[in-house]
Specification:
Elements: H1 2-24, E1 38-40, E2 44-47, E3 52-53, E4 57-61, E5 65-68, E6 75-76, E7 80-81, E8 86-87, E9 89-91, E10 100-108, E11 111-119, E12 125-126, E13 131-134, E14 139-147, E15 152-155, E16 162-163, E17 176-182, E18 191-199, E19 202-210, E20 216-218, E21 225-228, E22 233-241, E23 246-249, E24 254-256, E25 260-261, E26 269-277, E27 285-292, E28 300-307, E29 317-319, H2 323-332, E30 342-344, H3 347-351, E31 354-356, E32 376-378, E33 386-388, E34 397-399, E35 408-410, E36 416-419, E37 428-433, E38 437-442, E39 448-454, E40 459-463, E41 470-473, E42 482-486, E43 491-496, E44 515-518
Parallel strand pairs: 2-11, 13-19, 21-28, 31-32, 32-34, 33-35, 35-37, 36-38, 37-39, 38-40, 40-42, 41-43, 43-44
Antiparallel strand pairs: 1-4, 3-9, 4-8, 5-7, 5-10, 6-9, 10-11, 12-14, 14-17, 15-18, 16-17, 18-19, 20-22, 22-26, 23-27, 24-26, 25-26, 27-28, 29-30
């Protein structure tokens, strides 16, 4: 038992010694508690009006920091950082004369350090309206300028149409109107120029525009009045415009085409207008061609055309160009003299119903229109190419034997039993008849015949027309009852009125392959 007690005492002693060792061992200290703090190496900084970058501002803080403030004018190099970081601020030129200032705050755990930045006032150059439209016809423009001192303004190089007035002053210490003078725009194009206003280091651009003007003018070296002769003529009128104009003629003997531009470029381009003037067989006449803006008739050009003609005839006179015709009429006692083309008609000429001018080598029957009482006319054996009797409606007996050159015959309203031009040597023949002609007989070497205006002829005979080819169009011959085609071996087609279909078939010997249609 004694043994056990000794062991227990030894154990307790050992435990007691171990506990004393832990008490004597050094303990780790707790970290000290620090207070929030922030400070700056400078609390204010002043900039000159020209601007620039500030000195470095050192931030001393107890921890991370951030920057608060309006940075539109004064721009910081950093907006956050740690203890010991440095910050700079940059500002541009002050365009106004007033000083400007801004206070920035550096924050760290609720603590604040402030930095006040200022910039002294500088030159001021303010233009509220920087775009202007110059009048198309030219004139002055006034630019409202607010400046703190003497300013200058210059127009960009090459814009010669926009200038400063010679009497204008370039200096202004108070709100001022700067004047610009625009010339009239005669280029046909819109244009633009930049005017630069400056004061010290300040510069403000102002844009001036001028709209396109409408240009219509006669080309250099081109006349606006033309004197033309009696024959038909074409006039090429040259003008310049920056739009396609409308054109019109004042008389039906003048025909105008479409204006043709020399190029498709914008602005003023050269145009050509063809003006067709018809032949004049009457008195002198005058007409006009108007070339105008399609929406503004006041912007126009007028071209005057004066055409020669026959002077008005004395009362009772007629113009007879053919000397042989005049000589025969004098011999018949129908005119007073044949010394000139203008002939006075005697009473017998206007009353006698018969005119026989056969075999007189007459080639032109101009003047026969005044002999309106003729009922019998004999022109046989003359080298006539045209026979215009449209003004002689009373003729009922017409002789044209051996008129071999005939190519055109207008019978007008006359009523005839027959009309028989034969042995024709011309290659074509046109016959016009609006009256009643019972029978038309043609013979010759012509290759084509136009009878499309023979409205009331009842019988048509084409005898021995061996060279006649192509088509004979008779669709307008509504009164036709008989058609003879004798020895027309080359004729290919005949067109008859639809009203005679089934009632009329050509007679005679003709091309067996002849096509006959009814239309």
């Amino acid at each position: 038992m004694k043994k056990y007690l000794i062991l227990l005492a030894s154990a307790m002693l050992a435990w007691s010694c171990g506990d004393d060792k832990n008490v004597d061992e050094p303990q780790k200290p707790e970290p000290p508690v620090t207070e929030a703090a922030i400070s700056l190496s400078a609390t204010e900084y002043a900039f000159a009006a020209a601007g620039g970058t500030s000195d470095e501002i050192t931030v001393t803080s107890s921890g991370a920091w951030e920057l608060i403030g309006d940075d539109k004018v004064f721009e910081p190099s950093a907006k956050s950082g740690e203890n010991g970081d440095k910050v700079t601020f940059t500002v541009g030129v002050n365009p106004k004369s007033e000083e400007r200032t801004e206070t920035f705050q550096f924050l760290c755990d609720g603590e604040i350090a402030e930095l006040t930045l200022t910039q002294s006032g500088g030159d001021e150059l303010t233009i509220e309206t920087c775009e202007y439209a110059a009048p198309v016809k030219g004139g002055s423009i006034y630019v409202e300028v607010k400046a703190s001192g003497a300013f200058e303004y210059t127009v960009e190089e090459g814009a010669d149409w926009l200038t400063k007035p010679t009497a204008a002053s370039a200096a202004a210490a108070t709100p001022e109107r700067a004047e610009l003078v625009a010339a009239a725009n005669d280029t046909g194009k819109a244009r633009q120029a930049t005017v630069t206003f400056t004061l010290g280091e300040l510069s403000v651009p102002v844009v001036v525009t001028q709209a396109q003007n409408d240009v219509l003018k006669v080309a250099e070296g081109t006349d606006v009045t033309y004197n033309v002769g009696k024959p038909a003529e074409t006039i090429a009128f040259a003008f310049e415009a920056n739009f396609k104009p409308a054109v019109a003629a004042s008389a039906d003997w003048i025909t105008v085409g479409e204006p043709v531009a020399a190029s498709a470029e914008e602005g003023v381009v050269a145009y050509t207008l063809n003006i067709e003037v018809a032949a004049n067989d009457g008195e002198p006449r005058e007409g006009k061609v108007t070339i105008a803006h399609p929406e503004n008739a006041e912007l126009n050009l007028e071209v005057t055309i004066k055409q020669e003609g026959e002077e008005p005839l004395p009362e009772g006179a007629v113009r007879i160009p053919d000397a042989n015709f005049r000589a025969k009429l004098l011999a018949l006692g129908y005119i007073e003299s044949d010394a000139s083309e203008v002939c006075k008609v005697l009473d017998d000429g206007t009353t006698i119903p018969v005119m026989n001018v056969s075999n007189c080598q007459i080639s032109d029957l101009t003047g026969i229109e005044v002999f309106t009482n003729i009922t019998t006319l004999n022109v046989s054996g003359n080298p006539l190419a045209r026979l215009d009797l449209s003004k002689n409606p009373n003729i009922t007996n017409l002789s044209v034997n051996n008129v071999q050159n005939l190519t055109y015959a207008d019978l007008g309203e006359m009523n005839l039993s027959w009309f028989d031009p034969r042995n024709l040597k011309s290659t074509s023949l046109t016959v016009i008849s609006r009256g009643n002609v019972k029978e038309l007989e043609i013979n010759g070497v012509m290759t084509e015949i136009d009878l499309s205006q023979c409205y009331n002829i009842t019988t048509i005979k084409l005898n021995g027309c061996s060279s006649l080819a192509g088509t004979v169009d008779l669709r307008n011959c509504a009164a036709i009852k008989n058609l003879g085609l004798n020895l027309c071996s080359k004729l290919e087609k005949v067109i008859l009125p639809k009203s005679v279909a089934g009632q009329l078939t050509p007679t005679g010997t003709y091309n067996e392959n002849l096509e006959i249609t009814y239309e």
